[in-house]
Amino acid sequence: RWLRYAGYTLVGSSIWGLCLLFAFNQQRLNSSVMSGALFAVQHDPAVIALLGDNIQLHKQFAWLPHPLVLGTLNQLHGQVDLAFYIAGSEGK
After folding, report:
1. CB within 8 A of 54, min separation 6: which ones?
2. From CA 87, how far away is CA 50, in angstroms rounded?
3. Can you tell me where the transmembrane regions are (predicted)?
4. How far, in Å, are 2, 3, 12, 13 from residue 7 at the CA level?
5. What is the largest CA-CA distance in the chain?
6. What backbone phi and psi angles, to 5 degrees, belong to 91?
7. Which residues of 67-91 are buried (b: 16+ CB within 10 A; e: fewer)?
8. 63-69 — which CB contacts under 8 Å span 24+ positions?
9. Which of 25, 37, 67, 79 is the most exposed place for a label (fewest CB within 10 A)?
10. What is the tens place of the pLDDT at every residue in 42-61?
11. What span, in angstroms and rounded, lies between the C-alpha atoms of 24 and 10?
């Protein structure tokens, strides 16, 4: 009987963890810092020369609805460390 409850706990914890991952990713993705960083990358001549026009965020996993943004974003303390993938018309 305890094995069944352990299974339910494992499944519930996994779903809860995925929901947290999705929520924190959305928070980072929709932040003004992320918008500013993407704007700076899109208008950087060195990046345009390397990747071409139409530079956008790149989705790493097909099963995620949005691109994955990793790192920390603490605007209150001025700590921003974001990592994301970009792709242009000529490459990733």
Report:
1. 88, 89
2. 10
3. 6-24
4. 9, 6, 8, 10
5. 63
6. 165, -175
7. bbbeeeeeeeeeebebebebbbeee
8. 66/25, 66/26, 66/29, 67/29, 68/25, 69/25, 69/28, 69/29, 69/34
9. 79
10. 999 998 888 888 888 888 77
11. 21
Q: Where are the domains of the chain?
A: 2-87
Would you state the structure tokens that stand for residue 13, as one six-digit string? 């914890």
Residue 88 DSSP class: B
Q: What does the mean pLDDT of the chain come to? A: 87
| Residue 31: both structure tokens together | 């932040």
**Adjacent-strand bridge partners of 56:** 87
Tokens representing residue 61 in the block: 């996993």
Q: At 36, which helix (H) or strand (E)?
A: helix 32-42
Report the distance separating Cα 80 and Cα 4, nearest Å: 42
Q: Within a 13 Å sphere around the CA of 84, how many CA atoms are in the beta-carbon half?
A: 26
